[in-house]
Amino acid sequence: MKPPFSALSSNTYRALALVGLCILMVLVFIADTVTNYAIAAAVFHTPLLLIAIRFLSARLVIALTGISMALTVVSVLLTRSGDYDVGLINTGISLVAIAVTAYLGLKLKSVQAAAHETREHLLRLSRLTTLGQLSTSIAHEVSQPLAAINSSAGACQRWLEASPPNIEKAQAAAQRIVYDAQRAKDVLDRVRSITRNEAPASSAFDLNLALTELLSLSSGEMQHHHIDLRLALQTDLPPVYADRVQIQQVMANLLLNAIEALSPPSSSHAACISIETSFLPGDKPQTGKVLFSIKDNGPGLSGTQLSELFNTFWTTKPTGLGLGLTISRTIIDANNGHIWATHQTDGGAAFHFTLPLAP
Amino acid sequence: MTDNLDSSLTTPTVYIIDDDPSIRAALDDLLASVGVKALSFASTRDFLAHPLSDAPACLVLDVRMPEQSGTDFHAQMASRGLHMPVIFMTGHGDIHMAVKAIKQGAWDFLTKPFIDQALIDAVQSALAADAQRKEQARSRLTLQQRWDSLNPGERDVFVRVVQGLLNKQIAAELNVKEVTVKVRRARVMQKMQAGSLAELVRQFDQLNAETGP
């Protein structure tokens, strides 16, 4: 029952890769030196650089390229056997190969970074614009009848206060108030019907798989913020019954909240987000649930009422709309689940939701 | 006062431009309830098609409208010869928009839904400001007309009188008889409709403040 725990720290990973590459480079150097001039063992530096480009920063890759080229030249000077002319040509080819590999690799890396940045931007944008547009248009639509009601009410009051009171005018103003109140109600009904129309398209799906898909979208952002992601996904998780896309949106929202809670990074401890999934057995076989939890070791929700978190327009973020968690709760409720937040003992925040099992 | 406009054309008027008929009806009625005359229009085009009187006026302008936005219209007003104060209304006001509107000379900026009294206060102060502006323009015009009615000899006397010269000194400077100065001086007081020397000095300053005599 206990989920397997996989810890993955990007920093230790990078350090290990660097040490491994250095050892391999020394081996290539030795091979290049002990073999005769004609054997161009130095070209084996190129696959090492390709590996380096995958894991290390551009500056480190350039440094390693310089070292590779220097080692190639030194090993030629140390080699004592074989055809010297052929050796010289082979060394030249090796140097060119190393330089070209590093250049193309770095170019690829920058293109990948740009692509990642665009994707990250899109992920954020789609959430923000949807929420932003929604709230702006609701605010505008409701403010019109409210402004009319305010003005009509003021007029009504003044017609009644006049001496003699102008009953006819006051009645007309009151009628307009009724009409505009109905208009405001119509706006709200329309908003409600939009959410009702978006009835969940429920299907059975694997929550772990949906999560992994989402994480592949946001892994770059987490690397960018130097956040360690700890996954504790239960392997034999039964399928849940919900709207897959909606649930992914909720998970993305919670994940982005956690990432935002961890930036700027704390100086005292490494930023870490842990995500767990597990099966919660119920009293009867059909009342079992799947639990999703996401925890961060950020500043947490100190002093805030956990129950208030999900209320509309409540936010801890200076630029937040206070709609993300409200919408998340609406989605989870509509999918017959439950969402809540808890304080973590180490000070961070934790968000959890449950979803029903597929019948 | 030289103008002889009838009272309906001199009543201060609030012009309301909003595409929402409900807002128009409510604002019309609200202003009527405090005795302010209002005329409302569904678009800036309708407003421009309406002849304007010379009475003090102000404009209550919605920012977001289908044909032309309130802010765009405001930017064009000066080039159309419209100088009345503008009170903006918006359903989605933000600080940036408000600052921009005020910088461009807007009188006030109300975010819908606003309190009825806020609009009434804004409208009344805007009308008072426009009345003052119109009054100043009118008195400047009258003064200029009076100045234009003076002949060169009278102007010479006028300038020296307000400089504080005595009739004797003026006569010497202009090389005329003292009695001539006295006559011209009386003509100046009469044509400028000034009751005292102090008033004449004030008129002279006012004329100088603008274009100079």
From TrEMBL, chain A:
PROSITE patterns: HIS_KIN. It comes from the Bacteria. The keyword Oxidoreductase does not apply. One of its GO terms (molecular function) is kinase activity. It catalyses: ATP + protein L-histidine = ADP + protein N-phospho-L-histidine. The keyword Transmembrane helix applies. Its EC number is 2.7.13.3. The chain crosses the membrane at residues 12-31, 60-80, 86-106. Residues 137-359 form the Histidine kinase domain. Keywords: ATP-binding, Kinase, Membrane, Nucleotide-binding, Phosphoprotein, Transferase, Transmembrane, Transmembrane helix, Two-component regulatory system. This is histidine kinase. It comes from Alcaligenes ammonioxydans.
UniProtKB/TrEMBL annotation, chain B:
It comes from the Bacteria. It comes from Alcaligenes ammonioxydans. The modification 4-aspartylphosphate is found at residue 62. The keyword Magnesium does not apply. This is Response regulator transcription factor. Keywords: DNA-binding, Phosphoprotein, Transcription, Transcription regulation. Residues 13-127 form the Response regulatory domain. Residues 143-208 form the HTH luxR-type domain. Transmembrane segments: none annotated. InterPro entries: Sig_transdc_resp-reg_receiver, Tscrpt_reg_LuxR_C. SMART domains: HTH_LUXR, REC.
